[in-house]
Amino acid sequence: MPTAKVPRLTGLKKVAGKPVDLLVHGQDLGDDAMLIVRLTEEGFELSDVVNMLSTSEMYLCEDMVKRITGRSVRTVQRLLKEGKSIRLDSQQSVVAYQYALVLEMATRAFGGLPQAEVWMQKSTPYLNGYVPLELTHHPLGFQMVEQYLCRLLYGGYP
């Protein structure tokens, strides 16, 4: 029996750059947490979020596009085609930032994007068996994933 084709956000050029930089147009966030609060309150441009999504094959599948943008693949494609300036709401922007930051940190922690994507999709003992990708959508789950990655990057876990 043939398997159903899963919609993907296709036809995009992979944009070079770090996921967070693509969302914030390379602005130096430094230690200013209030800047990211302000940017997410304004809402990220849909085109910037799509550029961030294009950095990861994993992020281009339907459920991830919907999880991050709040819109279906077809809707995102239509909106991009129309060329209008569309901003995500603040909650969607926070979620987009969380996914961008986790992808960026995991890429550094695991030595590359393919390894990061594998790790993000597997249950992890240090996260009580949860899948990091599933936790990232929730504010407290995101904190747990971020703390774990910080420990990997800066010492604390083998």
UniProtKB/TrEMBL annotation:
* Domain of life the protein comes from: Bacteria
- Cite a single Pfam family from the UniProt record: Xre_MbcA_ParS_C
Identify the residues that the record assigns to the Antitoxin Xre/MbcA/ParS-like toxin-binding domain, covering every copy. Answer: 106-155
Give the InterPro entries listed for this entry: Xre/MbcA/ParS-like_toxin-bd
What is the protein name stated in its UniProt record?
A: DUF2384 domain-containing protein
Instruction: Supply the source organism for this entry.
Output: Pseudomonas tensinigenes
